[in-house]
Design goal:
Homotrimer. The structure is a single chain. This protein is mainly β. The chain folds into 2 domains: 141 residues, Jelly Rolls; 144 residues, Galactose-binding domain-like (Jelly Rolls), CATH 2.60.120. It is built from 1 helix and 14 strands, in the order H-E-E-E-E-E-E-E-E-E-E-E-E-E-E. 47% of the residues are buried. Helices cover 2% and strands 35% of the residues.
Length: 307
Amino acid sequence: MVIYNISKFLALILNLLVVSHLLQNLALNQNAVQSSNNDSLGFADKAVDGNRDSSYQRGSCTLTTSQSDPWWRVDLKKVYTIGAVLITSTVELENGLDGAEIWIGKSTEINDHESMSGQTFYFPCRSFEGQYVTVFLPGSKKILSLCEVEVYYGYPSSNLALKGEATQSSTLSFAAASKAIDGRRNSFYTNGFCSHTAEDETDPWWRVDLQHSFTITTVKVTNRGDCCAERLDGAEIRIGNSLENNGNNNPKCASISHIKAGKTYTYQCDGGSMEGRFVNLFLPGQKKTLTLCEVEVYAARENTDDV
């Protein structure tokens, strides 16, 4: 089994881990291996030495050769219920983790996956059980470099959007706003599981009302898979407690540069978290169409007990 997508942030991650009682880094100083070694510096164990220094030149990062499908793996020695994975990548390889995948399982086999893209990335997991955590970068002529991989025991918060109410600026045919919070990441619009605004609209938007205000740490967005992935380029995730301008004036959590067709990407807010009841996907511009196949919202653990 596997886990998640990605986006930048560091400072409040430790606070989140403390809040969630995810205190023990299970990967620290464990046995690690990788598909190849580029030189005498970038050995696999550099990613479990407890040092998050993101400069490869300072000697605390792994590095594979340029190859097809490079991978890195840590053996936790026994099976744990894994609640989160924290990855620090190297600054020398810009976007070096784009398209990479994290796998968690009880064997070294790879059976299922979700993609991620990217310095430090936080992945709250759905309580996967596993002994082996693998970072896998599919493709030809790829180089995998990791400066630290941390694995934490625990149980994450639930997807708050499942209990929310969704609306959008307009609706095309059967593609209601609620289709984006139905718990299905089915990315084919024709299968009936995606929301869709009217075509060629000015500043289309989609919004979920979580019913209460939460400290939101993570928003996951699944893009349409059967066509038109570029339509979501430039969308903004906005979070707050105001409905002024339909919630689109709330502070910006993150911007979506591009999500590959059918993929689920994870976004953390600048600064680590934001308070809000309303989560908007806002697509500024003329002649825009907003299609969302799933939107998931996760909050700091202590704020989910009231739901």
